[in-house]
């Protein structure tokens, strides 16, 4: 899995690309979120535009990141869900848990509302 | 390329208990599926189920032991079905103990969705005692004649 990290205002935008799967992408995603928290960034936007696969470990890790960030008083939201990743979030009913956006500007402004 | 519509294609593998080998098995499935002209969309979801069966066998069955292997058999019959068997060398597994990951009290759990994935993406999912003492998972995806 590849990743790109940037800060827009006080929001850490983490763009992921490839597979978020057991033993590789799932661990990497967790590490990126923990780095954001270590840097004092508690508003996190995960851009999943380039993600092709997310297995149950990846989904579990995403939920774990979501709750970790929430416990720190922050929030983690999702941007640009590819159709198959959206299907997985629907079937697992996690679509009801995450705030999901398909426009980065709207996603960023939602953190201040 | 000649195409034999009813020809059954089969692949068998014995893999070490390493997550990297999940990629190998998925690659084999995709090769087999494309030879049989199965739709990419269908293959994607079968591949996701195969990944979960393998992850289950490697992590929960063989507990990542380098001394234990995972045995995989993929069988594709164009226009009929794709069937997959994944067997570990662990100590067995009782799927009846699993909770529903979509119930509100489990929704924020960080694990326990692997079997749910398999059941969501395949038409049949069976857990049986394996010949080597572990668990054998059997997955079946039925194909629609003329489309897959």
Looking at this protein, list some descriptive labels.
heterodimer, A: 113 residues, globular, B: 148 residues, alpha+beta, Heat Shock Protein 90, 26% strand
Description:
Chain A has 113 residues and is α/β, with parallel strands linked by helices. Helices cover 41% and strands 32% of the residues of chain A. Chain A has one domain (2-102): STAS domain (Transcription Regulator spoIIAA). Chain A has a five-stranded mixed β-sheet with strand order 1-2-3-4-5, sandwiched between helices. In chain A, strand 4, helix 3 and strand 5 (100-101) form a beta-alpha-beta unit. In chain A, helix 1 packs parallel to helix 2 (56-71). The longest helix of chain A has 16 residues, at 56-71. The mean pLDDT of chain A is 97. Chain B has one domain: Heat Shock Protein 90, CATH 3.30.565.10. Chain B is globular and about 45 Å long. Chain B has 148 residues and is α+β, with helices and mostly antiparallel strands. The model of chain B has no long low-confidence stretch (mean pLDDT 92). Chain B has a five-stranded antiparallel β-sheet with strand order 1-2-3-5-4, covered by helices on one side. Chain B has three helices and five strands. In chain B, helix 1 (20-35) runs antiparallel to helix 2 (40-61) and helix 2 (40-61) packs antiparallel against helix 3. The interface between A and B is medium-sized, with 22 and 22 residues.
């Amino acid at each position: 899995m590849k990743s790109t990290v940037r800060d827009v205002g006080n929001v850490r935008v983490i763009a992921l690309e490839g597979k978020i799967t057991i033993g590789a992408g799932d661990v990497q995603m967790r590490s990126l979120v923990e780095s954001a928290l270590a840097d004092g960034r508690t508003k996190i936007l995960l851009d999943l535009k380039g993600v092709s696969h997310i297995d149950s470990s990846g989904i579990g890790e995403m939920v774990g990141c979501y709750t970790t960030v929430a416990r720190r008083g922050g929030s983690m939201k999702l941007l640009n869900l590819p159709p198959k990743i959206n299907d997985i979030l629907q079937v697992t009913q996690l679509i009801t848990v995450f705030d999901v956006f398909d426009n980065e500007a709207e996603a960023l402004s939602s953190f201040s509302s | 390329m000649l195409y034999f519509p009813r020809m059954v294609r089969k692949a068998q593998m014995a893999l070490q208990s390493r997550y990297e080998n999940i990629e190998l098995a998925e690659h084999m499935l995709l090769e087999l599926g494309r030879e049989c002209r199965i739709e990419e969309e269908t293959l994607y979801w079968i591949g996701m189920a195969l990944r979960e069966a393998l992850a289950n066998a490697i992590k929960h069955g063989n507990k990542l032991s380098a001394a234990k292997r995972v045995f995989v058999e993929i069988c594709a019959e164009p226009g009929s079905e794709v069937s997959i068997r994944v067997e570990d060398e662990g100590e067995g597994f009782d799927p009846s103990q699993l909770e529903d990951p979509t119930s509100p009290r489990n929704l924020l759990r960080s694990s326990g969705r692997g079997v749910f994935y398999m059941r969501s993406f395949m038409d049949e999912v069976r857990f049986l005692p394996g010949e080597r003492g572990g668990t054998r998972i059997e997955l079946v995806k039925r194909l629609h004649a003329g489309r897959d």
